[in-house]
Structures are given as C-alpha cells and as structure tokens.
From TrEMBL:
One of its GO terms (molecular function) is phosphorelay sensor kinase activity. It is found in: Membrane. CDD domains: HAMP, HATPase, HisKA. The lineage of its organism: Bacteria, Pseudomonadati, Pseudomonadota, Betaproteobacteria, Burkholderiales. One of its GO terms (cellular component) is membrane. It is an enzyme of class 2 (transferase). This is histidine kinase. Residues 217-269 form the HAMP domain. Its EC number is 2.7.13.3. Residues 1-21 form the signal peptide. It holds the Pfam family HATPase_c. The chain crosses the membrane at residues 196-216. Residues 309-533 form the Histidine kinase domain.
Length: 542
C-alpha cells in the first residue's frame, strides 16, 4: 500500500534524525566530559605549581629567620595555611579527576595511585615542616651556617625518603601530560562529532532525495491517470475508464471514479430515455393538437357550409309553402279537390321543413348526453312500420319501391324511445331512398341476431341498390356535415347530417349503425339494438 510505504519512509527518516540527534548529544557529552576532566587536570597542574611556589616562599622566610633578618611571624602562618589549603584543594581535585577518569577510561590506576601517594607524602612532609619551622631560631654568632642550611634543605626537600621537589615536579609533569591528553581527546571527539554530523546530514539528505524521487515517480502515473480521467469526465466522455494496475489507495480512488463514471452514464442514459419519451409525448400531443385543430378548422368550414345549406333548405320549403298558398288564394274559386291537393303539398313541404328543423335541433344539442330520451321496453316492429309508412310519399316521389318488413312470428323487446327509434329508422330509410336511382328498390327487414359474443340483438336492415359509397368516403360518413363525392354529384342539396344524427341516436340506445357499400352496387345499413329477451325461434347467426 502506498500509504504504508510512505509511512515507513517517513518513520525511517524520523528515526535517522532522532539517531543523529542522539549521536550528537552523546558526542557533546563525551566532549564535555573530556573538557571537564581537562579543566580538573589543569587545576591540579596549577595547584601543584602554586604549591611549589608557596613552599619556595616559605623557605625564603625560614632563611631570613636563620639569618636574623626579622621576618614577620604572620607571613609564616599565612604561608603555612596556604600550603595546607593547597594540599586539601589538590586532594579534592584528585578525587574529581579519579571519578572523571574512571567514567571515561582515560587515566590508568597507576597514575591515580601515584598522584594520591604524592599528596599523602606532601601532607605528612608539610606537617613535619611546620614543626621544624616553629623551632627555627636565628643562628648564634660563630655557628656553622652551612650545616644549618643543609639541615633546613633536608627538611624542605625530603620526606619519608622521597624528594619533595622531584615529587612535585613529577606531579606537575603528570598533570600537564593529562591536560594535553584530555585536550587531544576533546578535539578528537569534536572532530568525530563534526564528521558524524556532516555525514549523517548528507546521508539524510540523500535518503530524502531518493525517497522524494521514488514517491514522485510512484505518484506521477496514478495522478496523471486520475487527472486524465477527471478531464475526460469533464468533457462528457462517460465511457472513459481509468485503468487499475495496483492495489493501493489510488486503486480505491480509481474504482470510485470509475463507479462514478458508470453511475453518471446510467443517469445520462435514463435522462436521454426520459427526454426521448418526453419528446415523443410532446410530438404525440402536438400531433393530436394539430389533428384536433385541423378537425376544428374542418368542422368550422363544414359548419359555415351547413349554415348556408340550411338557409337554402329553410328558404326553399317556406317559399314553396307561400307559393302554394298564394296560388290557392289567387283568382277564381277552385274545386275542393284542387284546394285539397294544394293543402296536401303544403303538408308535405311542412313535413320536410319539420325534418330539417329536427336536424337543426339535434345538431345544436351536440352529443348524446344532450338528447332527451325516454327509454321503455317496447316492440321495435311498430316504430319501424311507422317509419316505413312516413317514408312512402318520398319513395313515390322519387320513383323508388319501398318494401316493408314482415311481422316477426314472436314479438321482440328492446329498451328504446319510440319517437327517437322511429326517427333513427326514418333517417336510414330517407338516406336510402334519396340516393337510389328511379325505379330502384329499398328493402327494410327486422330480425333477431347474435353478435360474436353470443348476445342477442334486434337488427333493422335497410338495403338499397343506389349509387353506393366509395371506400375512401366510408370512414367519414358518420361525421357531421360530411358528404362524399358521389353523394354531391347525385344530390347537391343534402346537409350531411343524416347518418351523423343516426349514429348519435344509435349510441344513445346502446346500439350501433354499421354501413357496407360498394360504389354502383348499393348500400346496406344495419341498426343493432340489444334485446331484453332472446326468442329462440327467431335468433339467426350473424
């Protein structure tokens, strides 16, 4: 793991730094001990020198006393005390030197013993010297001065068979040698410390450089790959994946980055799908709105045409009625038969005018919910017969033979409004008669049938041999104000409302109107209404 390697490297550098500091402290401690030992040794050297000088001054005082020069007694006491103090000071310094020398392993046991022995000899010699000095008297006249001087020299120079001057000189030389030795040791320690410090610093610097180069090289590739991957994601390249070639912390980051890229790609795909779906919905709604707008525009155009046609339809009957009435009232008295014929024509025109007005009212209501129906169980044969009878004058006028349906052997029962059912059948018959050729034939039949689900229906079938309807016009014949090309050629004064109103009335009764036709071969219109009961003898398979 990269973090583990980095931690180990930093820990190694920290350990090396601590060791370097510890070594420096050790070297400083050793140098300090050498310096301390050198200082003590120097004090010992100085002490022996001062001891020798004080001893020499005391010897001078004794010489003056022998010669009767009258030296001051206080000077003798001071010099004796100074000698004693120097010896005690040297004893203390010798003990310090022994301790420092033992700690450093510098001074050998023999040198320590010789110094201690010299101090002991000096102490005892100084004690005897003090007693001898106390007994010194000026030489009497005629005394041998040479013998007195030799005796004094023996007291000052010898003690316990040892020459004090030589002993002091050896101690001074030994102390001087020790001082030089400690100085050299301190210098060596300082040089060692300097060398070690420089070497360890250089080693640490090299190690830090090597580690920096190693980690820089180790970091360059993953950081470059991560940067490249992040820039690719920033550019929107969600298919880009950062390669995973290790198992360290960078691999974890790479896996997270790749997972994020996958998640972003999935989100973008979902967003694209949602956008496409929304676009499809918008296009679909736009198409529906455009279709609805086109339908409204077409309906508006047909409505304007309808109003023009209705104006013509209303104007023609009213003009005819007024004309018949004016003819009947004008001139001489006429026979009753002539008045009856005029009134008959007025009634016929009024009937046509009533049909047009009914169409207008139905058109104004607009849909099924607006129709006022009073549905009751009834036999559909009677409304069908009434519709056929009402259509007879129109059939005679058009020269068309209208064949009435036979009476079923068993009565049928439907839930219907008799007036509206008669109007519906009348619309189908009127449409068949008006679009038949002269000398043509229109057949009306009534029967019970079953649909594809086995449910019983009452079927009123109106069949003509007229002009027919083209296949292009068939899907639109139930639209209001729509008239096909053949219908406009055969009869220019139609309104295009008959079948539209018929479909509305059929749906209001829970039934359907189905039209089959071939141009030039006539048309078949089937009105089906649900039966309340199903007579077994009259049901035929459709």
């Amino acid at each position: 793991m990269f973090l583990k390697r980095l931690t180990i490297a930093l820990a190694a550098l920290a350990t090396a730094s601590v060791l370097q500091g510890a070594a420096a402290l050790w070297a400083l401690s050793v140098a300090n001990h050498h310096a301390e030992h050198g200082r003590v040794t120097g004090d010992i050297h100085l002490g022996f020198v001062e001891l020798s000088a004080t001893k020499q001054r005391l010897r001078t005082w004794v010489s003056q006393a022998l010669l009767g020069a009258g030296p001051a007694p206080d000077e003798r006491d001071r010099l004796e005390q100074e000698l004693s103090a120097k010896v005690e000071q040297l004893r203390g310094l010798a003990q310090q030197a022994i301790l420092l020398g033992n700690n450093l392993g510098v001074e050998d046991r023999q040198g320590q013993f010789e110094r201690q022995e010299a101090l002991d000899v000096l102490a005892r010699g100084l004690a005897r010297l003090g007693k001898a000095i106390d007994a010194v008297q000026p030489l009497p006249p005629g005394a041998n001065a040479r013998e007195a001087w030799d005796a004094l020299t023996a007291v000052f120079e010898e003690s316990e068979g040892r020459n004090l001057r030589t002993l002091i000189a050896q101690s001074i030389a030994r102390a001087a040698s020790s001082v030089e030795r400690e100085r050299a040791a301190a210098d060596r320690t300082l040089r060692l410390m300097r060398t070690m410090w420089v070497g360890s610093s250089v080693a640490l610097a090299l190690a830090a450089l090597v580690m920096a180069a190693h980690f820089a090289r180790a970091l360059r590739r993953p950081i470059t790959e991560l940067t490249t991957g992040a820039e690719a994601l920033q550019r929107g390249e969600l298919d880009h994946r950062v390669p995973t070639q290790s198992h360290d912390e960078f691999a974890t980051v790479v896996r997270s980055l790749n997972a994020m890229a996958t998640e972003l790609k999935q989100h973008r795909q979902r967003e694209d799908r949602a956008r496409l779906k929304l676009q499809e919905l918008v296009d679909e709604r736009t198409s529906e709105l455009r279709t609805a707008l086109d339908s409204l525009q077409q309906a508006d155009a047909r409505r304007r045409q309808l109003f023009a046609d209705i104006s013509h339809e209303l104007r023609s009957p009213t003009t005819a009625i007024r004309g018949e009435a004016e003819v009947a009232l004008r001139g001489r008295q006429r026979a009753p038969e002539e008045y009856q014929e005029a009134l008959r024509r007025i009634v016929e025109v009024s009937r046509q005018l009533g049909l047009v007005i009914d169409d207008l009212l139905t058109m104004a209501r607009g849909d099924i919910d607006a129709l006022a129906l009073h549905r009751l169980p009834l036999d559909p044969a009677l409304p069908v017969q009434e519709a056929v009878v009402q259509s007879m004058p129109l059939a005679r006028e058009k020269g068309v033979q209208l064949l009435a349906p036979g009476v079923p052997a068993e009565a049928l029962s439907v839930l219907a409004d008799a007036q509206r059912l008669r109007q519906l059948v009348l619309l189908l018959i009127d449409n068949a008669v008006r679009y038949s050729h002269p000398q043509g034939e229109v057949r009306v039949s009534l029967q019970a049938v079953r649909d594809e689900h086995g449910r019983g229906h009452c079927e009123v079938c109106v069949v003509d041999a007229g002009i027919g309807i083209s296949q292009d016009d068939l899907p639109h014949i139930f639209e209001r104000n729509y008239r096909g090309a053949l219908a406009r050629l055969h009869r220019a004064d139609g309104t295009g409302l008959g079948l539209a109103i018929g479909a509305v009335l059929a749906r209001a009764h829970g039934g359907t109107v189905v039209v089959d036709s071939q141009p030039g071969h006539g048309t078949t219109a089937r009105l089906r209404l649900p039966l309340l009961s199903e007579p077994a003898l009259l049901l035929n398979e459709p």
